[in-house]
Amino acid sequence: MATQWTRRQFMAALAATGLSVPMPGLMAAPGGKAITRPIPSSGESLPVIGMGTWRTFNVGGDQHLVRERTEVLKTFFESGGTLVDSSPMYGSADDVMGEALDTLNAHDQVFAANKIWTSDGGATREQDGASRRKWSIERFDLQQVHNLVAWEPHLETLKQMKADGDIRYLGITTSHGRRHRDLAQIMEQEPLDFVQLTYNVLDREAEQRLLPLAKERGIAVIVNRPFQGGSLFRRYQSEPLPGWAAEAGCGNWAEFFLKFIVSHPAVTCAIPATTKVKHMEENMGAQYGDLPDEQQRRRMADYVAGL
Amino acid sequence: MTGVDWFSYSLSDFLMFGPEVFLRLFVRINQDFWPWQGVAVVMMLLIAGFLVRGDKLAKRAVLLLLAAAWLWSGAGFLLEYYGPINLPATWFGWGFILQAALLTVAALVWPWDGNAARPARRWRAGTGWLAMTGLLPLLMVAQTGNWQAIALFGIAPGVTVAASVPCLLLLPRRVRWLFLLLPLLWSVFSAATLWTLGTRLVFVLPVATLTLTLVSFWFSPRPAQSPD
Ligand SMILES: NC(=O)c1ccc[n+]([C@@H]2O[C@H](COP(=O)([O-])OP(=O)(O)OC[C@H]3O[C@@H](n4cnc5c(N)ncnc54)[C@H](OP(=O)(O)O)[C@@H]3O)[C@@H](O)[C@H]2O)c1
């Protein structure tokens, strides 16, 4: 990815110059034009729904399941998705992603996001290289320090890697509402392109400090655990959607949960994970149509809290 | 900066895969190993036969066959199939290989006395063990509803460990504890995994193994009680 410009990078660069061209993949997707958000540090557009791989892509050498996950990824791309998030912590997910990208010949389509997850602060480049080889890509678009593990040395190296053109963006992640105070401090002091954190209709602590801070500092926000690891469905799927959900652009619970997240003005994208093509189709629906406004968002949160 | 707040984690935060991937490991290994399952069945029958025979040579043979079962399930199931989706399974894989080495040493060098239990007792030990080791693999079949998922002794680690613990009573208590450490760790690890996966039927296996292992630490068969 480093030496040759991919179609997506070319489009992104055009967009950054103020010129806009329709992306063929997005035009083919259902439901009209995909909702995108600019990455504040570059202006490059990102579709608001990305894809996570925790648990879902850790299928080892099971070729039957590798084929199934490849179909999920194919549906994601066909629906206009680009950002895929993984980590060396996710078992065989990096290997499986590499196989799926090879099968689909989709290295050009993916906005590749990975993480550095090692307490050895000197192993940043080594781990980045290992993940890159698994994905068969020349560089990651985004490399993040996973869960703030040894974040100081890793971030220093990531800054150097970005300057050398070995990655395009750098960031840092947390989840489950952990270490928000530490994250806020890092966001205030460091030149981050991205942060990744947990935010969903029930876990809303990020609204207090982190999301406004990201907006103020021009940091893109990736939202993990948008379905609280699936428990939002287990709790609410049997409940009816409110009558006014359609006005807020939501035709099902997946869209309800995801549109609540991506309609926050500080959020760049959400990265739901799934093992099923049908669920991927539902999730990608949140990338199209109307988004709820501020008042509707409040109503959505109140509705779920009242169930 | 604060450190890691371990109390904010739950067991499911450490589980890196879903039940489908785990349960399919058994189907996959059986498909790939076919028809070598026959060897596992022969090993089972031989162990039962040696338990019935019960002399010094038979005891050595039982431990050698157990060593083969630990080696096979460790190097096969744990290192090749389970390890790629769950790092601790790789550590257990090497542990199983070490246990196989220990069992081999015990089989070759342990100076057993020549006493054998009464024939009726040996018969009960052999047939009881065979019934248990023949039935336990069916738990996985019941869990998945798929015969191809059968978890045979020598191939599946859980059944291998469960079937080994009663045989370890052949060893005197003063050395037995060394052979029970890995069964203990395995049962705890396996119980935690299966509980979190929500596979309640096969969860019974590590819980039963754990109970049996704990009892075996202290159980001291008098000659008349001995399964040998
Ligand atoms: N510290 C970090 O950096 C960190 C921490 C946590 C997560 N993450 C990232 O964030 C991603 C997302 O978080 P997550 O995977 O923990 O949880 P999640 O996306 O909130 O939930 C995933 C679960 O939701 C279910 N699901 C998805 N779409 C569905 C639909 N339309 N209908 C019904 N069920 C649906 C999936 O089951 P099915 O397979 O049945 O669809 C899966 O069990 C991760 O994959 C990972 O990439 C990062």
TrEMBL record, chain A:
Keywords in alphabetical order:
Signal
Where does the signal peptide begin and end? 1-28
Record PROSITE patterns: TAT (PS51318)
Q: Which residues form the NADP-dependent oxidoreductase domain?
A: 49-295
Q: Which Pfam families match?
A: Aldo_ket_red
Q: Which domain of life is it from?
A: Bacteria
Q: Which InterPro entries does UniProt cross-reference here?
A: AKR2_Oxidoreductase (IPR053135), NAD(P)_OxRdtase_dom_sf (IPR036812), NADP_OxRdtase_dom (IPR023210), TAT_signal (IPR006311)
Transmembrane feature ranges: none
Using the record for this protein, list the coiled-coil segments as residue ranges, or answer none: none
Q: Does the keyword Signal apply?
A: yes
Name the UniProt record assigns to this protein: Aldo/keto reductase
Q: Which organism is it from?
A: Marinobacter vulgaris
TrEMBL record, chain B:
Tell me which InterPro entries the record gives. DUF6064
Any stretches that span the bilayer, and where are they? Answer: 33-52, 61-79, 91-111, 123-143, 149-171, 178-195, 201-219
Q: Which Pfam families match?
A: DUF6064
Instruction: For this UniProt record, give its keywords in alphabetical order, as a comma-separated list.
Output: Membrane, Transmembrane, Transmembrane helix
Q: Does the keyword Metal-binding apply?
A: no
Q: Please state what the protein is called.
A: MFS transporter permease
